[in-house]
Amino acid sequence: MAAHHFNEVVTGTGFLTDSEIKAAIEAGFLIVGGSSSSDRIRHASYELRLGEAHVAPVAPAKGEEFEFTIRRLADKTPLRLFPGEIALLYSLEVVGLPPNVLGFTVARGLLFAEGLTPENTYVDPGFTNKLYTTVVNRSNRIITLQFGMPIARLFFFKLSKAVERPYTPGHMREIGQQVASEISWAVSTADEAKRKSSEELTGAVRVLTMAGNQVIELLEREQQERKRQIQQTRLWLIAVAAYVVVSPLVATVINASPRELSRPLLNLAERDSRASYPQFTARRRVPT
Fold first, then answer.
1. 12 and 59 inside one domain
2. 3-class secondary structure, 277
3. Are residues 101 and 188 in the same domain?
4. Model pTM?
5. How many domains does the chain have?
6. Measured between alpha carbons, how far is 203 from 212 in angstroms, rounded to an integer?
7. Is 136 in a helix, a strand, or coil?
8. Is 51 exposed, middle or buried (0-12, 13-18, 19+ CB in 10 A)?
9. Domain that holds residue 8
10. CA distances from 45 to 17, 122, 269 (A)
């Protein structure tokens, strides 16, 4: 019934134009529940706006489930995404597609420019719900996303006829909603990092996605500079110690007279002379 009614509003097939999107929304299709805004219609697409976000932790502790934290936004509470965080950006709009309409989303280029990695995805015929775009903050900055800002464009493609099996949530069709994953050895909690050796920490930093090798190079240079400073300090200490020992002798030499300086040498020469040439006592002959 919905497809038949929609065919009366949009008669052709293929991608919908701005006028067709506007007519369909006014007839209660595509963006439903009063969540649409006519000024969001762009050429042959509709701009989805940011409503709320589900944010995943960067590194949950081992044994903990990988759960998203819901952050409901408002005009005065924007979303702040820290480096490495993953977020599902949900739209303000409720998307409601007839069974003969397929949707495609393209993330705004502004998100790429800020260092986010958003996904481009599809919307199955018959889908009705808020739509989300997954983003990952790959930058080294905290990125702020404002409530209500455009996050993606939604394109509508009308099929030649309705699909036999419209959209059904994955869990109702026994489709896994999460792939198996575990924490990488390169990512750990603060307590786990304290128990790792220096070699393990160095290896973990080296494989970081952003600037891992650069960080290691800086640390190695700093270590070499520290060794050089320690060696220089040791040389200074040796020089000071030598000065303390030698300076009294130098002062004695400087203050002594030439005769006093030569006396030890003369005494030594005289002692050596006596040792080399023994003296003999002459006997007087007494006449008989």
1. yes
2. coil
3. no
4. 0.63
5. 2
6. 9
7. strand
8. buried
9. 2-163
10. 7, 14, 112
- Say if 170 falls within a structural domain: no
HEC sequence for 9-65: HCCCCEECCHHHHHHHHHCCCEEECCCCCHHHEECCEEEEEEEEEEEECCCCCCCCC
Is the domain of 237 the same as that of 129?
no
Q: What is the DSSP letter of 270?
A: H
- Helix residue spans in the chain (DSSP H): 2-9, 18-26, 109-113, 190-195, 198-206, 212-255, 258-276
**Torsion angle, CA of 104/110/116/120, rounded to 10 degrees?**
10
Q: Kindly give the confidence (pLDDT) of every residue in the chain, 288 residues in length, as a single tens digit, with 9 standing for 90 and above.
A: 466 689 999 999 999 999 999 999 999 999 999 999 999 999 999 999 999 888 876 555 455 555 667 777 776 788 999 888 889 999 999 999 999 999 999 999 888 888 899 989 999 999 999 999 999 998 888 999 999 999 999 999 999 999 999 998 755 555 555 666 665 555 566 677 777 777 777 777 766 665 666 677 777 888 888 999 999 999 888 888 887 787 777 667 666 656 665 566 566 666 666 665 555 555 555 555
